[in-house]
Design goal:
The chain has 329 residues and is an all-alpha fold. It is built from 13 helices and no strands.
Length: 329
């Protein structure tokens, strides 16, 4: 297992190297107006002692844009390995500081959404498989297809209209109420939690369908296996057959999928956070991208790439752990 993990880690580093080279090439190929705009803004700030041309030369040198694609990439990579990603042009703070200030909002929102998704999707998928072609199965299938089909922006707007505008239960934007600063620490905590309800509901709605369908499909496959028929022929109760034999084997592919999604809790929900004004890492990355913040965009894409590779590695490891029949080479 240790040898397998080491090999996979080396492959991850190799893949990440070329992925980030592609990302840097795209950033390098952007119109120079982004850098020129930043240089003009720095030159016009109070106390600036440099002209726009001097700032332009300094920015190009700092991010390797004056060294060509290959030289610039290795210059950026050398700084990135040391944890130096520069200062965000849009947020005017170090990139790593902006990550620290925003990522935990995204993490807790993603974690709560993930828990609700698992707690709802897996039991409903199992129930639908046990009662195949019944009214319950059709209802679960329709519900799953609706969740898969509805785009995030439509779902978020619908919840805003119903729960925010019509019923007035929740604010439709932001993370704090009007009286936030007048509340006690406990009150402030619950105020933030209240503003997280609609974003979490949106995330659960748009993500629950695929996991529900996957659970149902795997459960149906397991229920048609020979050892399930043998267990029923021995006179075991249906509850024992489902819970002890069928569901345990259904969990094998599910665990790999769920394990691979864990690192994704940190990269934020770009569309949902932007629509609800949640100042997470997704919200920050969206505004950085549309405002030409190359340092933060480069960092965010590197961050996403690392999390994706980590998710794949975790899935492979968990598959070998939960299924002893798998031989890892």
């Amino acid at each position: 297992m240790i040898e397998f993990i080491i090999k996979r880690l080396l492959w991850c580093v190799f893949i990440l190297f070329f992925v980030m080279f592609i990302v840097y090439t795209l950033m390098y190929s952007l119109p120079t107006s982004y850098v020129e705009t930043m240089a003009r803004e720095l030159a016009t700030k109070p106390g600036s002692l440099k002209s726009a041309s001097e700032w332009l030369a300094e920015l190009n040198h700092t991010y390797g844009f004056d060294k060509g694609i290959i030289g610039g990439y290795f210059a950026w990579l050398g700084s990135a390995v040391k944890g130096q990603f520069g200062e965000s042009w849009y947020w005017t703070v170090p990139v790593t500081q902006k990550l620290h200030d925003t990522v935990w909002y995204s993490f807790w929102m993603g974690l709560v959404s993930f828990i609700f998704e698992v707690a709802i999707a897996i039991p409903l998928g199992v129930i639908a498989a046990r009662k195949q072609y019944s009214l319950t199965d059709y209802a679960v299938t329709v519900f799953a297809l609706i969740g898969i089909s509805l785009p995030t922006f439509f779902t978020a707007t619908l919840y805003k209209l119903i729960f925010g505008v019509r019923l007035g239960w929740f604010d439709i934007m932001g993370m704090q109420g009007r009286n936030y600063h007048m509340l006690s620490p406990v009150g402030q905590f619950f105020d933030i939690c209240k503003h997280m309800v609609l974003p979490i509901l949106t995330l659960v709605t748009v993500s629950i369908g695929s996991l529900m369908r996957y659970t149902r499909t795997n459960m149906l496959e397991v229920l048609s296996a020979d050892y399930i028929r043998t267990a029923r022929a021995k006179g075991l109760s249906e509850r024992v057959v489902i819970n002890r034999h069928a569901f345990r084997n259904t969990l094998i592919p599910l665990v790999t999928i769920l394990g691979g999604s864990l690192p994704g809790l940190f990269h934020g929900a770009l569309i949902t956070e932007t629509l609800f004004g949640i100042r997470g890492i997704g919200y920050a990355s969206y505004h950085s991208m549309i405002n030409g913040d190359i340092p933060f965009t480069m960092f965010y894409l590197a961050f996403i790439s690392i999390l994706t590779l980590m998710g794949t590695l975790i899935s492979d490891i968990l598959y070998a752990v939960v299924d002893p029949r798998v031989r890892v080479h």
